[in-house]
Amino acid sequence: AQQIDLAVVAGDGIGTEVVEQGLLALEAALTGTGRTLRTTDFDLGARRWHATGETLTDDDLAAIRTHDAILLGAIGDPSVPSGVLERGLLLKLRFALDHYVNLRPAKLFPGVSSPLADPGEIDFVVVREGTEGPYVGNGGAIRVGTPHEVANEVSVNTAFGVERVVRDAFARAAARPRQKLTLVHKHNVLVHAGHLWRRTVEAVNAEFPQVTVDYLHVDAATIFLVTDPSRFDVIVTDNLFGDILTDLAGAVVGGIGLAASANINPDRTAPSMFEPVHGSAPDIAGQGKADPTATVLSVALLLDHLGLPDAAAKVEAAVAADVLERSGRVRTTAEVGKDLAARIAG
Ligand code: IPM
Ligand code: MN
Q1: pTM passes above 0.95
Q2: Pairing with 341, which of 88, 170, 284, 313 sits 20 to 30 Å away (CA)?
């Protein structure tokens, strides 16, 4: 299609601020591509929940489905009980739209300071499974509030679900220069799920013999993410391990203000969703302090997904140039957005 139909879920807190800048970057990147942008705003998040009690209705979901992609800012507010918007909105979108690849690149751009003394070259991607694991809500509690309370959260791992994400991770590894895939799990303790993941990686490796495979228990992986992050190329892991590792990865490559993510439906049976890894940061909301760079980098992932790799590269190059020169300068959200859009426009 010549027109990109984008569903915009700005959400809560700094979400609206960073999304505004992300859209400017997107407009700039589309110039000269022959594609035009049409956006539809979806009023979802804390405000809507307070006003109506709704998080994501069937009608919302049906309307979102008709779009080519979704740009999401951030969801969550201290005035809403924990879990309501996370489960009822964000995870519901990921699950309903079958975003089984949660792609989270970790790249240390020149000029960005890492908390590591000697970070070396860091450029890896985490392929986090997005529709299974302990996130599915398979669990329950009994005798709640008593000394004999039992609370279960079952991690669901299906052969179908593991295989499709592992195959996607192999394909990504095969397309990168180092062609290396690291499976992260904890099969010495989580034997059932762990062995399913291991056997699946072994089996799919036969389709991608050029990819070198290794394995790390998740606890050891956290050590290497700090002591030797250069060893990683593509990491594939389950939903919860991936959640934790990607916050650590974000910190290691210069902070969550730069961490982008894509919730991808590789089969394209529903729109994919692009969002910064950071949250709604209610403490700084409305002050123009949020860094929109993570959202702009998420826009690059969006462009790539829509078959516009040149436009995506322009966005990434603009960020690379911007972060190289930012040391010491304090800019507002809008100023960073304007600078990035100007660089993208060339
Ligand atoms: C993330 C977030 C979400 C997750 C929460 C808000 C449900 O931490 O996108 O990483 O756990 O996936
Ligand atoms: Mn997270």
Answers
A1: yes
A2: 284
Q: What is the ipTM of this complex?
A: 0.99
User: DSSP states of 253-306 as a string?
Assistant: TT-GGG-EEEEE-TT-SS-EEEEESS---TTTTTTT---THHHHHHHHHHHHHT
Q: Is 287 within any annotated ligand binding site? A: yes
Structure tokens belonging to residue 93: 């979108």
Active site residue 43: no
Query: Within a 10 A sphere around the Cβ of 122, how many other Cβ atoms?
Result: 22
In tens, the pLDDT along 152-166 reads 999 999 999 999 999
159 in a known ligand binding site: no
293-305 helix and 333-345 helix, angle to the nearest 10 degrees: 40
Inter-residue contact 7 to 42 (CB < 8 Å): yes
pLDDT value at residue 47: 96
Please report, as a single letter, which amino acid is at residue 318: A
285 is in an annotated binding site: yes
The secondary structure of 184-233 as a DSSP string is: EE-TTTSHHHHHHHHHHHHHHHTT-TTSEEEEEEHHHHHHHHHH-GGG-S
247 is an active site residue = yes
The backbone region for 180, taken as left when phi is positive above 0, alpha when psi lies in -120 to 50, beta otherwise, is: beta
Going from the Cα of 209 to the center of ligand 2, the distance in angstroms, rounded, reads: 32
Q: Could you say which DSSP state residue 135 is in?
A: G
Residue 186 is a catalytic residue: yes
Choice among 77, 233, 243, 339 that is catalytic = 243
State the CB neighbour count (10 A cutoff) for residue 228.
Answer: 14
Q: Which atom of ligand 1 is nearest to the CA of 90?
A: 7
For residue 233, how far is its CA from the centre of ligand 1 (angstroms)? Answer: 23
